[in-house]
Design brief:
The chain is of the alpha/beta class. Helix content is 50%, strand content 14%.
């Protein structure tokens, strides 16, 4: 059976890009998978793991003749790559990004990729590990992938990798992830600051409750990647932190006053909202 793509170019072969390469190869979705990387040592790594068929440090060489180009770098790097990408693309090529925020990417695509086929996407998959060495061919199985505009070929691609596709505008997407993904990470980063949490070392995190372990996992996220993500969505995140701060202040006041009913009401409100948003989570 003929694969749907002749050549796929993966620009940025880290955890997500590497997993895409392995997934595409495993499912035979392309004849050739070419990786574009920034470091010479990464070329050897991705070839050794057979993440891609070939690798180059040249964006021009990597995307030449590709009918699908996957932009898998951090947001700030994708924004730079987009400036010269259009003149390198083959006619009719589909460009898809996998960045964690969408508004800045969407604005850049409308400015620099006019006349090209572009679909913003965000597969909700990942790991606290980083780099192509931790890539997983089945990383996208059973996950959700948000798309910012409709393209049947892009939708078929993500579904072939095992993901369910949903559509959100770039603005709604960034508002959503600020509250559901970015805020939990920020809380984890804040939780493990200073000397207070270091006192837990004498107990051993393995011996504590699952909540601490979940937060510890989030706190181990890649600093460079997450600094880039937070800056790319800072307007929505600042708004979210303001809302969160107001909620924490209400609880502090209730605790300070020893107000049992107010504390119960605070928790009850959380129960009600979570049952609507995540009814299957127990």
């Amino acid at each position: 059976m003929r694969p749907p793509f002749e050549k796929v170019a993966i620009v940025g072969v880290g955890l997500i890009g590497g997993s895409l390469g392995l997934a595409i190869r495993k499912r035979r979705l392309a004849k050739v998978v070419m990786g574009v990387v920034r470091r010479r040592k990464t070329v050897a790594e991705v070839l050794r793991k057979r993440t891609v068929h070939g690798a180059t440090m040249s964006l021009k060489e990597g995307v030449r003749g590709a009918d699908l180009v996957l932009l898998c770098s951090p947001v700030s790097i994708i924004l730079q790559q987009m400036k010269g990408l259009r003149r390198l693309l083959a006619p009719g090529a589909l460009v898809v990004d996998v960045a964690s925020t969408k508004v800045l990417i969407d604005h850049a695509a409308k400015k620099y990729l006019k006349g090209s086929r572009f679909v913003g996407s965000h597969p909700m998959a990942g790991s606290s590990q980083k780099g192509a060495l931790y890539a997983d061919a089945d990383l996208f199985e059973g996950t959700v992938c948000y798309l910012t505009n409709f393209d049947p070929e892009a939708e078929r691609f993500w579904r072939a990798l095992g993901a369910k596709t949903f559509y959100l505008t770039p603005e709604r997407h960034d508002e959503w992830v600020a509250r559901t993904s970015h805020l939990p990470h920020i809380l984890a980063f804040a939780m493990f600051q200073g000397d207070n949490m270091k006192k837990l070392q004498r107990f051993g995190l393995e011996a504590t409750n699952p909540s601490i372990r979940d937060m510890a996992r989030l706190s181990k996220s890649d600093p460079k990647l997450w600094a880039d993500i937070l800056l790319s969505n800072r307007v929505e995140i600042l708004s979210t932190l303001k809302e969160y701060g107001s909620s924490v202040l209400r609880l502090r006041k209730a605790l300070g006053a020893g107000n049992l009913r107010a504390i119960e009401k605070f928790i009850h409100q959380a129960n009600s909202v979570s049952k609507k948003l995540a009814p299957k989570v127990i």
